[in-house]
Specification:
- There is one protein chain.
- A four-stranded antiparallel β-sheet has the order 1-2-4-3.
- It has helices spanning about 5-10, 30-40, 60-75, 80-90, 115-135; strands spanning about 50-55, 95-105, 135-140, 160-170.
- Helices cover about 35% and strands about 15% of the residues.
- The chain is built from five helices and four strands, in the order H-H-E-H-H-E-H-E-E.
- The protein is an alpha+beta fold.
- Bound molecules: flavin mononucleotide (FMN).
- Flavin mononucleotide binds near residues 14, 15, 139, 140 and 141.
Length: about 190
């Protein structure tokens, strides 16, 4: 690793969405394990490692698709939209693996909850970078049943835990284009004196 290589990785990492995946082409489980190992090396306050990942693949994808679409139907009430229901059924089938991102609340209650959430976000960034390093595509979605209390137990999460979303992974068929960032001068202030 060199700074140049890392700069390139950090800046070229892109979100790649399910419609851009090479549908049907599977990522090796061994690579998913490496990616999740990197996730667990994220910084976290008090060595609490406040994350739990559920890997969804093979026939598990259909089970997940059915679960999230049916839960959506159950909870949506008057806001129910057929298009959303169908999307929740179909999007997962385009991925090789889906990682349900769980936040397990630290047992040390001196650690504010927001810091557990922050640590999980750091872990997800490691997933993003790892996926890019392997030449794979993926993205973090907070759509569907994200944050739903009723969804948590399906992913082994308890009352005090959170479900901050899902990370979809697949081989890339259509690469992402057109990413931009504002100049850092708009986002960075220096205090030197
Ligand atoms: C916390 C978080 C939640 C996100 N949720 C969604 C989402 O629900 N749907 C989506 O299309 N993209 C989602 N994204 C991905 C963003 O769309 C993506 O990061 C953004 O477009 C910038 O593109 P880049 O990741 O290629 O730099 C999310 C990203 C983050 C960090």
């Amino acid at each position: 690793m060199t700074p140049d290589l890392f700069n390139q990785l950090a800046r070229s990492r892109r979100s790649t969405f399910p419609d851009q995946f090479d549908r049907g082409r599977k990522v090796d489980d061994s690579i998913i394990k490496e990616i999740l190992t990197n996730a667990t090396w994220a910084p976290n306050h008090g060595k609490e490692e406040p994350w739990h990942f559920t890997v969804i693949c093979n026939d598990g994808v259909k089970k997940f698709a059915a679960f999230q679409s049916e839960l959506y139907k159950e909870l949506a009430g008057d806001n129910f939209k057929e298009i959303t229901y169908n999307k929740l059924q179909q999007q997962p089938l385009k991925a090789s693996h889906i990682i349900a991102i769980g936040m397990k609340r630290s047992s040390n209650k001196n650690i504010p909850e927001v810091e557990d959430i922050e640590a999980v976000a750091c872990a997800v960034q490691n997933i993003y970078l790892s996926v890019a390093a392997y030449g794979l595509g993926g993205y973090w979605t907070t759509g569907g049943i994200t944050y739903k209390e009723e969804a948590k137990s399906f992913f082994g999460l308890g009352e005090n835990d959170k479900l901050p979303g899902f990370f979809y992974i697949g081989h890339i068929a259509i690469p992402a284009t057109g990413a931009t960032r504002k100049p850092i001068e708009e986002k960075v202030t220096w205090i030197k004196h």
